[in-house]
């Protein structure tokens, strides 16, 4: 192929034809990519890291924002975190993106890693030759704590006492699973449009089960959702994907959490008018970070 390309280029130069330069990929400034093996899961992932503007010139430690669905959400989170620090006087933060598993499609990886249970019903895999997989959120959460946290702590000036989780949709199910099983995994949870309809509302059952065995949750939670994530008036509401009223579900879930009056739980819910499931994430992230990061000037 190299010989053929060289001959083609020579012919183009000889004939006077212009040769377009091969475009270079765009690289986000101040970012790094690290490979991490999930030993207990026998899978490989990548961790994307964005460092604050002041990182190289300071000795301080920074709060850490961990964002799932990183293939989409990492550059968004990096940009918003930087703008809040630069233009709104908020604290700077390290942003860590958690990628999908190597060799898996995004849909396959997130359905398996972010969901809390194996749902009833038949599901078709989007990966030929592999059965649909669900219900490994608890195991994936252990991977974050056992493998990702030590990697970040060992290589960056991270304040691991101030860890922020960011998820949306299925990613918020993962956050809720952690909140209701190992709440101290993170200090602040930013949860956008959680798919509370999943498995006929299994997270409502887990919320009640947690309340029966615990008297407190030491965490702060910011819930956000688009005002358009409701059910059409001609549809009958149910805990199914097709007939879910996601706004009503989230209001019910937040009310259930608040009803237990956990002394150290701070919970806040915002409904963003005129936004839908696809558009609301940047607003949820912005307001969720503002609810936790300090204003320094």
**Which percent bin holds the helix content?**
25-40%
Write down the CATH class.
Answer: Alpha Beta
This entry's quaternary arrangement is single chain
Number of helices in the DSSP assignment:
8
- Compute the gyration radius: what is it? 22 Å
Descriptive account of the structure:
Strands 1-2-4-3-5-6-7-8 form an eight-stranded mixed sheet, sandwiched between helices. Helix 2 packs across helix 8 and helix 3 runs parallel beside helix 5 (170-179). It has helices spanning 2-15, 70-87, 106-114, 137-155, 170-179, 198-213, 246-259, 281-290, and strands spanning 31-38, 43-50, 62-67, 94-98, 158-168, 188-192, 219-226, 265-272. 37% of the residues lie in helices and 20% in strands. Residues 1-9 have low confidence and may be disordered. It has a single domain (28-290), classed as Alpha/Beta hydrolase fold, catalytic domain (Rossmann fold), CATH 3.40.50.1820. Helix 7 links the parallel strand 7 (219-226) and strand 8 (265-272). It is an alpha/beta fold. The protein has eight helices and eight strands; from the N terminus they run H-E-E-E-H-E-H-H-E-H-E-H-E-H-E-H.
């Amino acid at each position: 192929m190299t010989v053929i390309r060289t001959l083609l280029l020579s012919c183009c130069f000889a004939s006077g034809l212009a040769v377009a330069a091969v475009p270079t990929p765009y690289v986000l400034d101040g970012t790094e990519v690290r490979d991490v093996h999930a030993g207990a899961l026998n899978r490989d992932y990548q961790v994307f890291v964005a460092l604050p503007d002041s990182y190289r010139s300071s000795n301080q430690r920074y709060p850490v924002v961990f964002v799932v669905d990183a293939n989409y959400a990492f550059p968004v989170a990096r940009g918003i975190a930087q703008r809040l620090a630069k233009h709104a006087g908020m604290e700077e933060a390290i942003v860590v993106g958690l990628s999908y598993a190597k060799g898996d499609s995004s849909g396959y990886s997130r359905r398996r890693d972010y969901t809390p249970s194996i749902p009833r019903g038949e599901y078709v895999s989007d990966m030929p030759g592999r059965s649909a997989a669900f219900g490994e959120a608890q195991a994936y959460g252990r991977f974050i704590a056992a493998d990702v946290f030590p990697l970040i702590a060992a290589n960056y000036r991270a304040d691991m006492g101030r860890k922020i989780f960011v998820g949306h949709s299925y990613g918020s199910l993962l956050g809720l699973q952690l909140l209701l099983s190992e709440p101290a995994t993170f200090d602040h949870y930013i949860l956008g449009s959680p798919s509370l309809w999943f498995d006929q509302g299994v997270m409502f059952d887990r919320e009640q089960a947690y309340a029966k065995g615990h008297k407190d949750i030491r965490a702060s939670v910011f819930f956000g959702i688009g005002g358009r994530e409701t059910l059409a008036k001609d549809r009958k509401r149910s805990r199914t994907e097709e007939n879910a009223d996601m706004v009503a579900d989230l209001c019910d879930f937040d009310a259930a959490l608040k009803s237990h009056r956990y002394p150290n739980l701070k919970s806040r819910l915002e409904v963003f008018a005129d936004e839908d499931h696809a558009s609301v994430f940047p607003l949820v992230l912005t307001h969720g970070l503002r609810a936790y990061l300090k204003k320094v000037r």
